[in-house]
Amino acid sequence: MGWKKAELIKVTGLYLLIIPFLNILNATGYESSQIQGHFGASSVEFMYINLIPVFSLVAGLPLALELSKKFPLKSMMLSITIISIILNTCSAFATSIVWFTIWRSLLAFFSIFGIVAALIPIVLLYNPTLNMAIMYGIIQFILQGSSNLYKFLGAHFANIYNWRTSLLMLNINFFLCILLTFVFIRKDVALGKQPFQFDFKGWGFLILFLLPLLFIAAEGQNREWFSDSKIMLAVALWLVIIGCYIFYAINTKNPIISFEVFKHNNVVLGTLFFFLIGLANGTGSVIMAYMAGLLGFNDLYIAHTHLYIFLGLVISIPVCTYMMYHKVYLSVAAIIGFFAFSLYHLLMYFRFYPGISEDDFALPLVIKGIGIGFLYLLSALYISENVPKQLSTSRMMSGILARIVFATIIGGSVLSTFMANTTVLHKTGIGQQLTAGNEAAAQKYSNTKSYYLLKGLKPTEAGKMADNPLQAEMAEPATLLTYKDIYLVMAAVSFIPILLILFLRIGRRPLERIEVEPLPL
Questions:
Q1: Domain count, the chain
Q2: Residue among 342, 371, 338 nearest 491 (CA)
Q3: What pLDDT digit, counting tens, does each position of 386-444 carry?
Q4: What's the pTM value of the predicted model, to 2 decimals?
Q5: Which residue, among 338, 406, 411, has the nearest Cα to 376 in the 3D structure?
Q6: Under 8 Å CB-to-CB from 402, ≥6 apart: which residues?
Q7: Looking only at Cα atoms, what is the longest distance across the chain?
Q8: Are residues 108 and 34 in the same domain?
């Protein structure tokens, strides 16, 4: 491909610069209980701790992209790395839940500058030397692979002492970035030649757009959704903000998110793909709850599951990159990716039973990694086809909002509510079998009630106490049935896009031209 050895070493060093900035929120991925316990946070407060940094990253992304063009590249990388070390250390030693959230949110925002500072010289090196499919493939491999490895390593570092250890170990990465910056970023020049122009009004609308969604995601389940007046008010306010922004964007020359981008059919379908991928990948939280809550696996084993996913990525991303580079039809990669997710959910459907061993999760999670590799790379390429550079931010934000905000965050909150309601229904169904004809249940109820009557409780109180053990025994099978329902539904949801691709003849062509920068978020 015309690459010299020195160029290959340089681009490798630049890729290493990106990795810690991509994973600032992953280092403590499995230490939620430690952090929540340390700050004494309620479940709702802890939801805010997790969500505010993510929303800060999404909200700050357009501004960071524009500002990054005005700073000298080397100075920006060094400054952002030092700022990241300071903010990360402050979050590790935060004195309260509020300050911990503030430091983490600022760290998430500034991480975008580090990503862009390393990505810009990579883009310059690849164009026109290499096909864009190869660059997207390598970036997606680093993004997806490093996120799984950081969650795995973060759990092990936290096991050394506590969750602070994982954060402080991240500082070692940032110190390494300082060294890499001096070696691989030689020119200290700003790349943006045009005067600074930014749609601050549109950015304000974006922040207002996200605020009600933050409230809904954090408290929707706790407030029982639309039965709560404040949730209904938040939804109404969100719809008003959308309406105001549509009016604003139509009458503005260069809005922060231009609806012109949706004239490209691939952006519309690519956004839908990102949403479906977010839904399909979001069921991973169910597996963690199952392993920890019902099977009793420890954090270190659960963290090992990311190695199985990583193995799937090692298989799928190079294969998908090869297919895109050699002009294999897009539909082929899409069908493979969605089929892998369908098979993963179907295999997991048969694994929700007590006593399952740890090794039984290996194959499904490898298949999940294959699905992630094909679909994330394909979607990133597909949504970027033939999009003019001036619409790059609009294209990127549509995919990010679809996958991260609506599918992962809002979808995860809805999924939690669905699980709780479905579990109650299954408990009711199981409870209907605890009749007088069920001799074992009846005998247990009678013995327990007699025990509490002998203790001096009234008959009604003794009856309630006798009912509690039966309710506890029903919780596990009801939860397992709920998990099976979810994964059976998701197997069908993951298979539906295959039928649409086949019958609507979507993607029966090779990859087309890409000009926009592949920001890996």
A1: 3
A2: 342
A3: 888 888 888 888 888 888 888 888 888 888 888 878 877 776 666 555 554 455 555 55
A4: 0.84
A5: 338
A6: 271, 272, 274, 275, 278
A7: 88
A8: yes
